[in-house]
Give the backbone structure.
Amino acid sequence: MSKKKLPPEIKAFDDMDYEKQGNKKTKSTRTNRIISNILIVVFASTFLYSAYKLYSANQNYVEEAKFNEQIKDAGFRPDFDFDLTTDSITDPTPAPTEDETPLPTDDKGKVVRNPSIVRAKREITEDFVGWLVIPNTKIDYAFMQGADNEKYLRTSIYGTYLFAGSLFLDYRCANDFSNFNSIIYGHSMNNGSMFGQLKNFKNANFFNNNPYGKLAISSATYTLEIFAYIDIPADDDIIYGTIYGYSNSATTFLEYVKTNARHYRELNLTENDHILTLSTCGYDFDGHRIVVLARIV
């Protein structure tokens, strides 16, 4: 049977329908291609941004490590005795006897037991206070004290920009640690540098097995007897209140720590003791601060 030919008017409409369908397919393909290109650009941008952030973070860690090694290589780190037992909790440099040469003094007449720190003050900056070491962590750093608590948040000890900043003593604290409570701040870096490993003390075994640290200033080297780990909000007026001007007593402070600490070691502390508070950011809740406390001996 021969194929029946369509009338011209019907064929014209049929051809128009095919043309419309073709146009629809072309428009659909073009739209899909545009969407695909947009998605490719978005994914590529996201990847490049993530790669940049990763590179930047790594560079921040590299810069922080470089600065710390430079300070050590330059001889500004004091020599520490790491026999951190109860037998070593004594002044590492006893007063000279009559037959010995008197210890040197600085320009203010204070005895110098760590000349490397005096040299750092003279050669780097007067803001250089001392050195802090907590064994079995990455905490082995110089610490500073600025005219406020902003200066060393993103500043190296050389005064240059550094994302990790520097450890620093609260500007309201006496730099000879004669206050009842003295606070040193530091960033909690993701790679564990600076104060990033204070959170290790949240683990009971780590807390129990690491009870000591060392603190050196120009006139003395002290042993730190770590006695508490506590999670607090940034506006805690008991822990920070002893330097912020609130009227909390030393007794109130000690009772609060003992009651609220996640881990606590009994040292029979009194208001005559001197406390070092190490403070950094935590991320368990908004405004979280991690605090490790030690008695300065």
About this structure: The longest strand covers residues 220-233. The longest helix spans residues 8-73.
